[in-house]
Amino acid sequence: MPHNKVKGMIPLSDPRVTLIGHPAPAWMVNYADLMTELVCFFIIMYAMAAALNKDVVKAKQEVEKAMKQEKVSTEVKVTKDGMSITLEENGENVFFESGDADLSPKMVEILHKITPTLRGLAKDGHDIIVEGHTDDIPIHNAYFNSNWDLSTARATSVVQYMINDLQMPPNHMGAIGYGQFHPLVPNDTDAHRAKNRRVVFFVKNKSDNFDKGDKKKSEKKPDEAAPDAAVQPASTEGAEASPAEPAPAEPSAESAVPLPAEPAADQNAQ
What we know:
The protein has helices at about 25-50, 55-70, 105-125, 145-165, 190-195, 255, 260-270, and strands at about 75-80, 80-90, 130-135, 175-180, 200-205. The protein is of the alpha+beta class.
């Protein structure tokens, strides 16, 4: 007796239904491969999200909000290595005068906005590297012989101001200059040159052995050394078998007290 067909269902005799022991349709291979790739993608995204420091993500939001209020062209990126904050010249927002390393009033204002956030990261164990970048216009004046010198001096000026005036911890600060050798865009127009003249704050991920006390877990205080290494009680075993060793002889009076003739000879020599 033939099996009655259920409304809306495909009968088992239809070739589109795959039975046990029969090969799967061709589209199933691509579908299974796509599902596998999606699972791997979400696993990677989950791992990266778990690896990112929550403090760094919060700092990114604070910096972006502050620079939006200052109307400064800023790009903030968070990667597996840390966070980079790129400040680019945009119109009248000039960070330094041409061929000079002194901070402009606008740059000082920007540093006052972002330093509190960076100070919190530095005190939590993050090292902060300030990078200086220039365009490709050659420079040679009484102060700088090349764009390398200029970019390094600018990065150093930023670091010194943050340390001396904004209380940044110096043991977590560094400065480096790249000159014109790391451009974001080709130096073919004035707008592109302005984009390449930039200051970058790179916040490195916190070291694993940092212990929120500006000391490493492997370091120990001198008084924390094991007391066993200092003085050990003398063993009493075998005391009757071997006589007690005599105490070391005290220095004689002749060796302890210098002869009066020697200082007298020195006085005569002077």
